[in-house]
Amino acid sequence: MEDPREHDGLVGPKTIEAVNAADPVWFVGQFSVLRCAYYGELVLKRPVNVKFLRGWLNRVETCLRHAA
Length: 68
Prior knowledge:
Layout: H1 13-21, H2 24-45, H3 50-67
Helix pairs in contact: 2-3
């Protein structure tokens, strides 16, 4: 689902308010998707980073397990 709010790249009071209002499990799930995409981009841009990918994804999985 597309977020209608304007993205400015900053974490300010409106961002904190939105995060606090969100369902924690939903938020962690959405944030995890973004983290995985970011890690994939890192590996595509610099393939030598593939050696770190398993560890990065393990951290995402751990975060998801703790949120559930």
